[in-house]
Amino acid sequence: MAPSACLSPYENLIAMLAAVSAAAPEKPMLRAYREGAWRDIRYGEAFARVQAIAGGLAALGVQPGDRIAILSNNRPEWALADFGSLAAGAVVVTIYPTLTADETAYILKDSGARVVFVEDAAQLAKVQAGALPELSHAVVFEGPGTADGFALTLAELEARDVSGANRLEATRTSATHATPFSIVYTSGTTGTPKGAVLTHGNVLETIAAVCKAAEDLIDNFHLNLSLLPLSHVLERFGGHFLPIHQGGTIAYARSMNTLGEDFAAVRPQFMMVVPRVLEKAYARVMEQVAKLPRGKRKVFDWALKVGQAYVEAQEFHRPIHFDLALKHTLAERLVFKQLRARFGGRLDAMISGGAPLAPDVARFFWAIGMPVYEGWGLTETTAPATVNLPGAFRFGTVGRPLPGVELRIAEDGEICVKGPDVFTGYFGLPAETAEAFEDGYFKTGDIGEVDADGFLRITDRKKELIVTANGKKVPPQKVEALIKARPYIAHAIVMGDRRSYLVALLTIDREALAQSHPALADFSVDSPEIQALAAEAVADANAQLARFEQIKRYTVLEGDFTPENGQLTITLKPKRRVIEARHREAIAAMYSEESP
Fold first, then answer.
1. pLDDT at 187
2. What beta strand segments (E) does 205-358 contain?
């Protein structure tokens, strides 16, 4: 990339951190709950520790271009290890902490990692279970090292620093936009994970594009609550590099179970989310509203309609008349302010990605004054390629392209992308890299369309598009979203490729069921009551679908799809091949008689 084409003032991520840290060394950079209190690491302290980590890695023999992996949940040490590795000139490989020992070993071996940072003894045990001749050391965030010297603590690594300042300065002055900074492995929804090689320029130019497109919004991002895994490019970009670029503070949520307490304590101003987080929050609010006395329910319903009308006027740039403004002020006082207090009271924006967000859920959060800016992108596009923004949003779409990003819709509907955000290729896979591009455009595998106003709408995944025996093409996500409109349906997986009709596997959200139908919370999925609820959800969905899109048979499964049982990715996307293989008998039974 020629310098004249660059939007970012920084040549690499270490130069960015150095500048921000020098400008405000006393400002909190990282915040975490430790020993009964929320504690800060300031920019100046963080920068010094990054330098020490770089020096410690150099003492271990790490050379520029070597791969260093991080295997941990979100915590301050993750951020320090990331920047410390980059300061040493290394390429960081991110690994989801929920992966199995075999999956972890695959990534470490495929990337040729020299050193791996691990969270604790459990993650260290995964590493030690694999045959990894290229891996020389592990560094443990929490707990002791090992007597044989293979594993040392983070403090021990930092104490080995002898040339951190020199190594960091060498990286700051030599790394360019074209220098690889990370290998991020795809989630493997459709096959073996591949390592996408991202450069310093991919991140910096995407940050610059976001800042250019949404300057007023981004300038208010002073305190981020980090919830999604940093192993995923969405959180690492939007909840890690972006707030640090802005000199903001990152607070690490303890867990999903303590999220309510974390909101109250941290009072974040923005955060990255996936749709499932918002869907569960929305369902919980609506279930609680359903239990209110009739008068209060009517006030809530009135306020929500007012909020939605107010947002609709903004969406289509219509004037907000005096009576609507007055009603909105009243709704704000009676309902919206109290709702926002549940999320800390000042959550000005959420960025949603990773999967489609139901428009009704998006409209709800916008209506109560907590805008959700839905965007779209992939690991290979450094997360966002398109995004909805203040003054330029359209529900049901993923926004317009960021500055510098070009979209092309192929004849078969596949979205192709070109721009400074697009990765350089798959690590060690030249043939797969060549196959992924056409005329300089990356073939994303997503199917979509651009409306007359330039907003992109995602309709499905190319490889997941169902073609029935009658030649009809059905996007399963459309059907699944309609079934999941009932809050007690956790997941719906639609199948029917080359078959005469569609079927679905359903799972029940027990938490939501306990809220909406308390008497049924412990009922078996085979009970008439649960089957009746599933039948209602499918019937409602079918009523909104063309005949060839309708579900003819379904099976309600005991349990749910989770990352832990290998049926969802860590970002909660279904692994369709795994699900179909695990439930082969149930699927076969639904097709035992081809004509339902």
1. 66
2. 223-226, 249-252, 270-273, 349-352
The per-residue pLDDT of the chain, averaged, comes to 92
pLDDT in tens, 83-107: 999 999 999 999 999 888 998 999 9
591 and 580 in contact (C-beta within 8 Å)? no
Q: Report the pLDDT value the prediction gives residue 468, as an integer from 0 to 100.
A: 82
Separation between Cα atoms, residue 506 and residue 483, nearest integer Å: 9
Burial 226-262 (b: 16+ CB within 10 A, else e): bbbbbbbbbbbbbbbbbbbbbbbbbbbbbeeeebeeb
Whole-number pLDDT of residue 512 = 85
pLDDT score for 594: 55
The pLDDT assigned to 270 comes to: 93
The one-letter code for the residue type at 426 is: Y
**Residue 545 vs residue 507, higher pLDDT:** 507
Q: How far is CA 322 from CA 308, 310, 325, 332, in A?
A: 16, 11, 5, 15
d(C-alpha 306, C-alpha 323), whole Å: 10
> H-type helices in 316-358, by residue range?
322-331, 337-341
593 falls in which pLDDT band (50, 70, 90)? Answer: low
3-state SS class at 167: helix
Q: Which two tokens stand for residue 542?
A: 């079918």
Please list the helix, strand and coil fractions of the chain in percent, rounded to the nearest 5, in that order: 40, 20, 35
Angstrom distance (rounded) from CA 422 to CA 404: 11
Per-residue pLDDT at 2 exceeds 60? no
Residues 6+ apart with CB under 8 A from 549: 472, 474, 478, 479, 502
Cα separation of 347 and 338, whole Å?
Answer: 13
292-297, Cβ contacts within 8 angstroms, sequence gap of 24 or more: none
**pTM for the structure as a whole:** 0.85
Q: How many beta carbons lie within 10 A of that of residue 585, not counting itself?
A: 8
Q: 């590795």: which residue's tokens?
A: 85
pLDDT at site 353: 87
The burial of 178, by beta-carbon neighbours within 10 Å (0-12 exposed, 13-18 middle, 19 or more buried), is given as exposed
Residue 294 region, left (φ>0) first, then alpha (ψ -120 to 50), else beta?
alpha
